[in-house]
Structure formats: C-alpha cells, structure tokens
Input
Amino acid sequence: MRQPIAGVVHAEIVEREIDLAALLAMVQHRGIGAVSLFVGIVRDVNEERQVSGMEYDAYVPMAAAQLSAIASEACAKEPDLVVAVEHRIGTLKVGEASVAIACAHPHRREAISAAGEIIEALKKRVPVWKLEHYIDGSRQWIDPTASAQAATNA
Amino acid sequence: MRQPIAGVVHAEIVEREIDLAALLAMVQHRGIGAVSLFVGIVRDVNEERQVSGMEYDAYVPMAAAQLSAIASEACAKEPDLVVAVEHRIGTLKVGEASVAIACAHPHRREAISAAGEIIEALKKRVPVWKLEHYIDGSRQWIDPTASAQAATNA
Amino acid sequence: MKSPTTSVLLFASYADAFGGREIELPVPTPCVVNDLVEALRDLPGGSRLPARPLVAVNREWVELSASVREGDEIAVIPPVAGG
Amino acid sequence: MKSPTTSVLLFASYADAFGGREIELPVPTPCVVNDLVEALRDLPGGSRLPARPLVAVNREWVELSASVREGDEIAVIPPVAGG
Output
C-alpha cells in the first residue's frame, strides 16, 4: 500500500463514465481505516414522471472550481481526510452515475460525515443543471427551488 | 437496468476478498437515485502501534444471522432501501477491506443514513474479533471496551 | 476604460429563455451586478428570471450589489441542480 | 431429560484463555446462562471474563438470566470487534 496522503487528490467535471474503482483506489493508502463512497445515479422516475435519460449542463470552469473548493473545505476541517470527487456532464442513461464522492480517513465517522457534507454542498454550490428527458418525448430543466418535494430529492 | 428490487439482497461472512464492484452492482436497479458504500479497511497503525496485518475470527453462523438481521431492520425502516453487506474473516493485509456495506435508495439521505446505521450496529452486534499482528512480531486481540479511544476507532 | 456593453454568460434554462449561452447587455462597466440583471430582465425572456437570480463574477458566487469591472467574467445562473 | 454437563462455545481471546473453542462445563441442564458463566469463571483462565460477559443462546444475544435447555447452542462471547 501507498504511503500516507491527505487532502483533495482529484476534483473534476468529466464527460465520460465515472470509474468508481479508480476513485476508490485514489483515496487509499496505508493509514486508511474507512472509505465512504457516495454515488448519485440517474433514476427512472422523478416527481412521478417516467424518465428516459438526463442531459447535464454545467458552467464547467466554475463547477470544477467549486467542486475543488468544497472538497478542500472538507479537508481543512479534517486534516487526515482524503477526497476524490467527479461530476459527470453530457447525456446520461437511467442507471448511470452522475456524481461520485470518495472520502477516506483513518476512522469511519469522519469518512462518512465528509461524504455526506460534500454532496449537500455540491447540490447548493456547484453550477450544474439537468434536463430531464421523459418517455413521452418531452424535456424539462429541473428546478430544485420550484417545490419543497424536489429539494429533498437525490 | 434491472426492474425495482428492495430489501436485503446479500448478507454474508466471507473468507475471500470483498468485491466492491459486485456489491455495488447488486443493489442497483432502475429506481435508484443514490448509492452509499461504506468500506472498512485494515490500517497500518492502531492506538499508536504499527500493524502488519489482521486475523479476523467470527462465530460464523451467528455473525451471518446478525448481519442479515441488521440489514433487514434497516430495510424495515425504509421500504425502498436495498442493502448488500459482507464481512470478511481470515488473514487480511494492511489496505484490504474487512467489511463493505452498499445501500441504495431512490433518495440520497436514506442511502447515506442506512450505511452509517448499519456499520454502527454491526460493530455492536456482530460476533467478529480481530487479532492484530504488529511489526515487532507480537499479537493482540482487540477489545473495543478496553478504552474509550478504541471505541471510536474505525 | 469604459466599454459600452457587457457580456454575460447564460446556461441551461436561461440560455433557452434568452436564446444563447452568451449575451451582450447595453450596460457599460464599471457597474454593479444588479444593473446587468435588470437589463436582462428587460429583454424577451426576462420574465424567466426569479426576483433574485444567482450570479457569479469570475467564477465565484457574489451578491447582486457586487461591482463589475471591464474584463470580469459574469454569469447569471439558474437554480443549480447537480448531483 | 437432564444432561450432567453443558457444552459452551468460545472464541478469540476466550478460546485462548480457556484453551479451546468448545468446553464442557459441569452444569446440568436446564439451568440459566449465569450458572454457566460462573462455572467458567471457576476454571483456569476464568479471571479473563468481565463482570458481565456477552452470551448468545441459539445464536441470539441473551441476558444472563436466560434459561438454557438440553440441546441449546451456548456461546460465551468476547467484546465484539468487527468492522
């Protein structure tokens, strides 16, 4: 196993499939006792409408900078934390991963909290949007501020 | 993608490497919006002693039953939750996964809480023990009740 | 140095509403962010904007009172929906 | 039907302390779990047991007051340390 590392090892907006195994490998080293991985996935139903796929748009340079800043802030709070995070954009099918956050730490609670805090911050601060494609052929930009229900969706 | 499934799809004590990709695949279906994966890993230092490896012992049939019961209880609380969990026993090297818990749900908060609750319950209720091997050649059964410090370790 | 117009980046539903991912607004710099928002609101599609739209200057979130200088990168940003 | 002894499963540090993963205790069934714990405490290695050791009957956690019948699977269990 690799010697200890800490901090943000990877934070990127990508236009290809997210490789979960690669993210898990990036955060590991000899001193790690726990890894928490969060994966956001395109699902087949949103607010009771049948979804056929999703198009993700982003303000790419700002999204990359915000992703990196959020991960850095988590690492500033926990000096032994290691974070690798990717958000995918472009056209995704149901079942594909849109975001993945891998957090490693010597202890489990820190790894678990970090992954949870990063996804919450990401949903507030990273300029990414999704155009849902429905099976009836229509499309709609998702606005999480439009309803309280939507705001709690994954 | 597979049609919706829910509940405990896998809960096992194994004597081989844990296949994280397989666990992630087991919990996914068309209705999933989030997956939270927790991985416990053998690390190189515990309570300031240098660890060379770990031997996990278990009361196997009871450990398997408890693992299954814990996962079932999590699913009883959250009807759309899907859980796959494995605990490895035998001899593990530093960097290898000893336990993995994959939780999938339509929404992120439920997936994240479930993985956190299952690892906490596992550490209290599943009869598994670890014999730490130190680089000086000595060995010691870990007793999490022996110190408050140890009780918070991953 | 003053420029007679200021360029603003638009994305997603705002790009659809205003017909492009970049728009020139008849507002000279220096100005404040809110001047640009109000100029955008006067255009066809302007009703699409909420009372207080999100804005970034040079890729950082700012308040509507933030000042804008020649050469700044301005983006008026729809409600974010990542993850 | 009474058996003159009861078999108890041991693991990890307790298996080391008592010299095996299964031990016959001179306690007839029916009895309660605490009778078995006290018999174990009287053996060499018994000082290894905490005041209230963990016990399972038929693979479920039980109190020390739980009753034990002929054929039950009894395990006296060291502090668990999984994960």
Summary: The first helix of chain C runs from residue 12 to 18. Chains C and D do not touch (no CB pair under 8 Å). The mean pLDDT of chain C is 95. Chain C is about 20% helix and 30% strand.
